[in-house]
């Protein structure tokens, strides 16, 4: 069954009893979730727990997948994947502008590229960019659409450790500036804590843990890490 998606004037996600299954195997088993406007949320879970399935459902790109429940999402949604998905036969700026209307589109595209640190690379081909630069271009392509909701499916998963650190900082900076709601799917507990204000753990087809990260509160990074690892069944001090 197709998801019931209606456009809202305010950017927020609301899921009620969302189910999705593949070949009779239930992956999402009645997910209830609200994502308030402007919140940065990370989604953790074991491999195969259904994180991408949930993200694709919210993005409205899971046509043909069996399921039920209600889903409300904002009108302007951008999605970033692990690979940049830039069209190799188009230069960087046209990639960013793809499908964008308006007289000021080019100006906005250039500004977005400058914002992600790719000013001056507008005429480069995607293959001339490093992996990190390609992901920067993908972020520019997302942000130029001024999304109310940014869905990111392991956007830094294929990058080296140093580039990943820089890209995390960039994403947080862009979020602070533009304030879309963000749902970041990641395998990386530390990435989730460093970036997000709320961390969810998907478990047995539902949200098993819903943790608020209070940066100004008394809890240190390590405390959140231990709780999240425990929810994921990882006990670091076990032999
Ligand atoms: N199109 C599909 N057809 C059949 N099964 C699918 C399809 N998409 C996902 N699945 C199955 O649904 C389950 C959840 O997949 P999903 O990709 O959502 O998990 P995930 O938590 O994102 O995993 P990972 O962290 O490894 O990317 C998996 O068992 C997967 O094989």
Automatic annotation (TrEMBL):
Keyword Metal-binding: no
Protein name: ABC transporter ATP-binding protein
Keywords: ATP-binding, Cell membrane, Membrane, Nucleotide-binding, Translocase, Transport
Family matches, as PANTHER family: ALIPHATIC SULFONATES IMPORT ATP-BINDING PROTEIN SSUB, TAURINE IMPORT ATP-BINDING PROTEIN-RELATED
Ranges for domain ABC transporter: 13-229
UniProt GO MF annotations: ATP binding
PROSITE patterns, sorted: ABC_TRANSPORTER_1 (PS00211), ABC_TRANSPORTER_2 (PS50893)
Superkingdom as given in the UniProt entry: Bacteria
């Amino acid at each position: 069954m197709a998801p019931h998606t209606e456009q809202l004037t305010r950017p927020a996600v609301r899921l009620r009893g969302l189910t999705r299954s593949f070949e009779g195997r239930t992956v999402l088993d009645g997910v209830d979730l609200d994502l308030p406007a402007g919140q940065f949320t990370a989604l953790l879970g074991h491999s195969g727990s259904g994180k991408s399935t949930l993200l694709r459902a919210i993005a409205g790109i899971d046509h043909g997948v069996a399921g039920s429940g209600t889903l409300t999402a904002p009108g302007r949604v951008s999605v970033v994947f692990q690979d940049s998905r830039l069209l190799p036969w188009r230069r960087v700026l046209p990639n960013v502008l793809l499908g964008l209307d308006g007289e000021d589109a080019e100006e906005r595209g250039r500004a977005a590229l400058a914002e992600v640190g790719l000013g001056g690379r507008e005429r480069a081909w995607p293959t001339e960019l490093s992996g990190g630069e390609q992901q920067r271009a993908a972020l520019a392509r997302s942000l130029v659409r001024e999304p109310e909701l940014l869905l990111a499916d392991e956007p830094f998963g294929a990058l080296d450790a140093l580039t990943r650190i820089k890209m995390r900082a960039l994403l947080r900076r862009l979020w602070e500036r533009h304030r879309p709601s963000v749902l970041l799917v990641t395998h990386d507990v530390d990435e989730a804590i460093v970036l997000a204000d709320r961390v969810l753990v998907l478990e047995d087809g539902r949200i098993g843990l819903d943790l608020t990260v209070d940066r100004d509160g008394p809890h240190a990074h390590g405390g959140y890490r231990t709780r999240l690892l425990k929810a994921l069944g990882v006990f670091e001090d076990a032999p």
